[in-house]
Amino acid sequence: MNVPVAKVLSERLPRIFAAGADHSDVQRVITQVTDMSLWPQAWLALATGYERQGETALENGAHTTAGEAFARQALYCHFGQFAFFGDEDLKRRLQAIQNVAYQRAAPYLSPPGIHLEIATTGAMMRGVLRVPEADRPPPCVILVPGADSTKEEFQTLEAVFHRRGLATCSVDGPGQGLTRAAAKLRPDFEVPIGHVLDSLQQREDINTQKIGLWGRSFGAYAALRGAIDQRLSAVVSIGGFFDLPTVWARMPYSTQESIAYAMGLSVEDASSALPSYTLKGHLGEVRCPVLIVHSGGDEVCPVTESEHMVSDLSAPTSYQLFENGNHVCDNLTHTVRPLMGDWLQSILFGRTTPV
Predict the structure, then answer these.
(1) What is the mean pLDDT of residues 304-326?
(2) Mean pLDDT, all residues of the chain
(3) CA 236, 20, 343 angle in degrees (round to 5)?
(4) SS3 at position 236
(5) Is the pLDDT of residue 85 over 50?
(6) Omega into 338 within 30° of 0, i.e. cis?
(7) Strand, coil or helix: 72
């Protein structure tokens, strides 16, 4: 499907800015991209410039600058490949560059990133653990991206939790990032999330008795499937669906394409796989506190999906609806992210819930 550039930009710009893109860089992309086939190369050109900046900084011993530059290189490669399916080899190339760039950035970030490889069914998931300085091992929040998103997009989000004393573990699960090559998207995301918990519970630098889980869009569904694991202390779901077959037909084609690609299927063939992607019959098993966040203007997952979640949950549940928000409230990050950060901080540190 040939999607107009203006429509793509209207859908993606709030998310791109929320993830930390520089305004001037975005303007350069906008002026260059007259057709979506040019989208990946425009971002790759910017990413290459930041790679050079990072290498120069390393040569000069400016490690902080190097970390920032390599992290931006990774982020821009992510933007270049995100929701782009016109050239699968180029998409994989961008993902590979992005992965290497973030590995180069990780030691120089604050807090530093520790790269994890986590075994799941038939694949190794890649994760990045970041632990802020503290007098004792802090609680940790697992971050799960959407269907065609990746952990490298979470840099500004991670900072919200780090400022509140929480460690983060951002993970590319089945169907996401480079993990997709060996393991496609799966409905029972409680399985890979359980494997992430298995890995984290072997560590001594975090509080393994206080682990939260956060997910956006498809990751929000995944987080609620994972919430049945009794080792979790709190779960946040933002902008997710309750029952994929119910909302599939109304989803934008780009979203359908992203989910189908993560499944390893065409959009047409994905229809037969949809019935398993549901929270029906699962939420009654959740015991930890849950925060459901949704937006009135969500063009991907309607508000009714969040209402079904709240209705089916018997665990302590908080519900926040932002009438003016877009999908995942990317246009309201200044309000929504602090709310989620404060809620998780309160639960994981054992304070009174603020929501």
Answers:
(1) 98
(2) 95
(3) 25
(4) strand
(5) yes
(6) no
(7) helix
Comparing C-alpha atoms, which of 118, 113, 124, 28 is closest to residue 79? Answer: 28
Determine the pLDDT at residue 198. Answer: 98
Q: CB count, 10 Å around CB of 299?
A: 13
E strand map for the chain? 113-120, 123-130, 140-144, 167-172, 211-216, 234-238, 290-295, 317-322
Per-residue tokens: 64: 């902080």
- Give the bridge partners for 318, in sequence order: 291
Give all strands of the β-sheet with 123-130 in edge-to-edge order.
113-120, 123-130, 167-172, 140-144, 211-216, 234-238, 290-295, 317-322
Contact 206, 162 (CB under 8 A): no
What percent of the chain has a predicted confidence (pLDDT) above 90?
Answer: 90
CA–CA distance, 136 with 285 (Å, rounded to integer): 32
Alpha helices in 227-332 (DSSP H): 244-247, 253-263, 267-270, 303-312
- Cα–Cα distance for residue pair 148/259, rounded to 1 Å: 7
Q: What is the pLDDT of residue 1?
A: 43
> Could you tell me the pLDDT band of residue 351, with boundaries at 50, 70 and 90?
confident
User: Residue 207 pLDDT more than 70?
Assistant: yes
What is the pLDDT, as a whole number, of residue 296?
Answer: 97
The domains of the chain, with CATH numbers, are: 1-109 (1.20.1440.110), 110-355 (3.40.50.1820)
Q: Which residues pair with 243 in a beta bridge?
A: 278
Average pLDDT of 140-152?
96
Q: Which structure tokens are listed for 65?
A: 């600058």
| Mean pLDDT across 51-63 | 98
